[in-house]
Amino acid sequence: MSEKNRSERVIGLVAIFVAVIALGVGFAAYSQTLTINGSGEVKASSWQVRFENLSAASTTGTALETTAPTINTNDTNIGEYDVSFQTPRDSISYTFDIANNGTFDAEISSITIPTPECTGNGDNATTDAQNVCSNLEYKLTYTDGGATVSQGDTLNHGEKKNVTLTLTYKDTITAEQLPTDDVNIDNLGINIIYSQK
191 by DSSP, 3-state: which? Predict the structure, then answer.
């Protein structure tokens, strides 16, 4: 190989090397690094609709509370109260809070307020039961305003609503309809289902 060819080769290699370096410098001049920094956190969430602050019985007339209700340890059940009535206009009521201590808004997706069922005793059992049951009123209302607790009612997180449960022996019963023997009253269980709003 001649000296001329060798120098042309060296010059060619140097030219290629310089071109590659120039391209690298040119590329570096037109590049930019973009950076996004941040952090996040998912807070703990909870579903906690519960009963609180159950009052003592408020009675009218000769109504008598024989067993007081209690709120269970999960705060989701008010249980096993027992009352007795003797005369028309007798009434018993309890107030309590329904509280949403969770992180989600809630609404009543279903509520069942049953019609009381009566069972008579003695010779006029059937008639006595019908007369008593047709003159009972059982209701669950908001203490403030008196509206009936209903499906679709909302309870936002952190909110509490005070409600009143009332059982009344109405004075619409006549003297002829008064029972001749004791009448047992059942089917007083109310179910309220709250769902996420």
Answer: strand
